[in-house]
Amino acid sequence: MGTITVMTDNQKEISLEDALDDCLDRILRGQTLEECLKIYPQYAVDLKPLIETAMKILSLTDMSPRQEFKEQLRKLLGGTIEE
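Structure (tokenized):
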């Protein structure tokens, strides 16, 4: 992905990568995707799929093993696994 920069209202350059980083931080702090895209309308078309993909990846980190798996592993290891 090439670097794209634009001038914001206060004439500070911001790249697509920086906008993505800022949006991800904002979303993790509770803002919605739509709110973030309004902050960077010049990147909205590019940011939306990137943010959606990042959020899907982050949601995968919340996975935990099923209880059945834990029980089988506990039996296999002789009951040494703690909850």
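The chain has one domain: 5-76. The CA atoms of residues 5 and 15 lie 4 Å apart.
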